[in-house]
Amino acid sequence: MPDTGGSNIPALNDLLAPLGMAFSDNVYEGMYSIGDHQTHFASGTSIAKFPSDGLIIGRSLKNQGHEVLTGETKTQDDVPILGLHQQNPTSGRVVLYGDSNCVDSSHLQKECFWLLEMLLQYTSFSNLPIDLSDESTISLPPSGQLPERMEGNHLHRYSKVLDSHLGEPKPRPLPACPHLAWAKGEPLNISAPSNLYQHQKLLSVMDAGPMVVKQPNVQQRSGIAVERVDDWELPPGMSHSNQLDNSNAYPLIAFFSTVLVLVFFFVHVHKRKTRPKRRKGPRLKRFTRLQERFYGKFPSV
User: In this predicted structure, what is the pLDDT of residue 222?
Assistant: First the structure.
């Protein structure tokens, strides 16, 4: 026998006991509708205990447990499958639903996300949709014996809630809630190192007074019109004298470069004209004399 199957109903009832709520051990199955929506209640359980001032919705479903044990189909009316309760005006809201297969991808036959959205609207914003508010509440029958854990089970070996002891397993103590230590916020331009952020130097317009537009100063120097640029228009470290000297140096550099190129070509041409003619070697003269001795002189062309 397995230690538990499906939902651990005894553990859920232990959690819901302070709220006066509990699930039963009956299993039901069938199709039902709420408003214009329809869904499938697949192998779910019913509600056994619920506060009397809450909203309890019931439907007609088949008793699946009775069908498995006896082989006979039995339909039961007003099976409590959905409960909604407001604890008090300053507390939260609790919703019980006996089946989760309609939102489970493993056993999904007909989805019920529309119902999940309605329940979230109620628990989060205390907004009860019209489809649920139009439902009439039903009364629960007197609750009998609630589901209990099977004797001799070894659920404590696998559970993270139960602690293994000799005899009856006991729940483990709840861990303490963590407390967060919030860091103190500091502006970035103060906490950041200087090599990552530096203030930009801006020109103060308010302290300098009204801006005066100056006409460019044109100076006549050696027949060339030179425009004078104000100091604030020049890059740092450069004055008017440097700018004028650099402008006069460019023609001199071009002139000397042209003279050097002309001298290079003149020397190269002069060497080619004064180069002596190549004389015939002594071996070639000996070969010519031997030919003239045996064969005579060849007529010249």
Answer: 46
- Residues 19 and 145: their CA atoms lie apart, in Å, by 18
Rounded-to-integer distance, Cα 252 and Cα 217, Å: 26
Q: In Å, how far are 92, 103, 106 from 109, measured between CA atoms? A: 32, 9, 9
What amino acid occupies position 76? Q
Q: Could you read off the pLDDT of 160-201 as tens digits, one per residue?
A: 777 876 667 788 887 888 888 888 877 766 555 666 666 666
**Exposed (0-12), middle (13-18) or buried (19+): which is 49, by Cβ within 10 Å?**
buried
Question: pLDDT at position 268, please?
Answer: 81
Report the alpha-carbon distance of residue 86 to residue 92 in Å, rounded: 7
**Residue 132: φ, ψ to 5°:** -90, -35
CA distances from 101 to 3, 106, 158 (A): 21, 8, 24
Which H or E element spans position 145?
A: none
Question: Looking at residue 88, what is its pLDDT?
Answer: 83
In the three-class reduction of DSSP (H, G, I as helix; E, B as strand; rest coil), residue 189 is classed as helix
CA pair distance 30, 59, nearest whole angstrom: 9
What b/e sequence results for 18-43 when a residue is b if at least 16 CB atoms lie within 10 Å of its CB, and e otherwise? eeebbbbbbbbbbebebeeeebbbbe
Q: What is the dihedral of CA 8, 12, 15, 19, to 10 degrees?
A: -170
pLDDT for 215: 53
pLDDT at 230: 47
Which two structure tokens, joined as six digits, stand for 196? 């990552």
> Residues in the chain with pLDDT < 50?
218, 221-234, 244, 301
* CB contact set of 5 (below 8 Å; sequence gap of 6+): none
What was the pLDDT predicted at 163? 80
- DSSP for 7-50, written as a single string: S-HHHHHHHHGGGT-EEEEEEEEEEEEETTEEEEEEEEEEEEE-
